[in-house]
Amino acid sequence: MKLIITDDIPQMAEATFTTPRGLTTIEDEAFAGIAARVVVITQDVESVGENAFSGALVEQIGFLNANTEIHGNAFGGRDNLTVYGIPGGKVESWAEDHFYTFYPLPMQE
């Protein structure tokens, strides 16, 4: 899949941290306190644990797997987070449930 950016979707900033390829689970508190502001969660990641990014400086996060399971408190209750992802999946629902701004990432095979 290839990410396509269009004019009607605010562009996500360049990632300052991308999860390693092949990583399928981000354990509880795995990246707590990380100094990255823009994070990309690769398509291999199936789940993000409790407080995985608590205390982190994350402002924008992109999910390349629409159905990644995200623990409700994965970002430590952060109030201001912009989420980018593939529309129609668990990530979008999670973002809406937590009142985060969600922008769809148009994808092309």
Nutshell version of this structure?
With 109 residues, this protein is mainly β. The protein is built from one helix and ten strands. The chain has one helix at 90-97; strands spanning 2-3, 17-18, 25-26, 38-41, 47-48, 60-63, 69-70, 82-85, 101-104, 107-108.
Walkthrough of the structure:
Helix content is 7%, strand content 26%. By secondary structure, it is mainly beta. It has one domain (11-109). It has a five-stranded parallel sheet with strand order 2-4-6-8-9, with helices on one face. Strands 3-5-7 form a three-stranded parallel sheet. Strand 8 (82-85), helix 1 and strand 9 (101-104) form a beta-alpha-beta unit. The radius of gyration is 13 Å and the shape is globular.
**What is the rounded distance between the termini?**
4 Å
Tally of alpha and pi helices: 1
Q: What is the 3D shape?
A: globular
Percentage of helical residues?
under 10%
* Major sheet strand order: 2-4-6-8-9
Which spans have pLDDT < 50 for at least 5 consecutive residues? none
Number of strands: 10
Report the average pLDDT across residues.
88
* Biggest pleated-sheet summary: 5 strands, parallel
Strand-residue fraction? 25-35%
Report the structural category.
Answer: mainly beta
Number of domains: 1
Give the SSE order as H and E letters. Answer: EEEEEEEEHEE
Using only CA atoms, what is the Rg?
13 Å
Question: Notable features of this structure?
Answer:
mainly beta; 109 residues; globular; three-stranded parallel beta sheet
